[in-house]
Write a structure and sequence with these properties.
Blueprint: E1 7-15, E2 19-22, H1 34-43, E3 48-53, H2 54-67, H3 76-87, E4 90-93, E5 106-109, H4 113-123, E6 127-130, H5 134-142, E7 148-154, E8 162-165, E9 173-183, E10 187-196
Helix pairs in contact: 1-3, 2-3
């Protein structure tokens, strides 16, 4: 029996009002806790290949490099989480970056991201998981390639300072919940199977 094709998961952090970040706020809106950071570290040990665009690559590669410095200012849990990302296989979609990429275990793809991911799902195994990269996530959802849609919702509303609205430009998507969990008594993980739909759902 042949190996199973790869599963694609869009993986996002989000404020309650739908933003990926906020001006003047720290990473994770300053609300990350030990349970969440320990979970991130464990996720980093799984058979995941991380997918991201050029902007996310630049930010995360820089943070990972800082975390390797003893005087970085990161907590032990934050450093372990970022260090785990360096060890994971990563695919970077960009027409502007050039090889060799400085972040270890990074593969550069300069062609069409949707078609490349479609082929990766067919030919690879394990889980393909996005990191940040909102436009990439939006394109993959719209193409119907996403098997799991996972959010960690942070309990903050950033109506004044919020940046990077996550759902702008999305198609309509029906979501069937398959998992949920609370971290540190305040962060909510929600995992769904998504289906792009052409018309509003009707109650039977």
């Amino acid at each position: 029996m042949g190996e199973t094709a790869a599963t694609l998961m869009v993986d996002l952090i989000i404020s309650l009002d739908g933003y990926a970040s906020a001006e003047g706020w720290p990473g994770w809106w300053g609300l990350e806790g030990p349970e969440y950071l320990a979970w991130l570290e464990e996720e980093g040990k799984k058979d995941f290949t991380t997918l991201m665009g050029a902007n996310t690559y630049r930010v995360m590669a820089g943070l990972s490099e800082q975390a390797a410095d003893d005087d970085s200012g990161f907590s032990e849990e934050e450093g372990a989480s970022l260090g785990g990302l360096a060890a994971m296989p990563k695919v970077i979609f960009s027409s502007t970056l050039k090889e060799p990429l400085v972040w270890p275990n990074s593969e550069l793809v300069s062609g069409d991201a949707v078609e490349a991911v479609r082929e990766m799902k067919r030919t690879r195994t394990g889980t393909l998981s996005t990191l940040g990269s909102l436009s990439l996530c939006r394109s993959l959802v719209a193409a119907g390639l996403v098997d799991r849609y996972r959010l960690v919702v942070f309990p903050v509303i950033t109506g004044k300072t919020g940046r990077e609205r996550i759902y702008d430009g999305y198609p309509d998507v029906a979501l069937d919940m398959v998992d949920s969990r609370t971290f540190d008594g305040r962060l909510q993980l929600l995992e769904y199977v998504p289906r792009v739909i052409d018309a509003p759902l009707r109650r039977d």
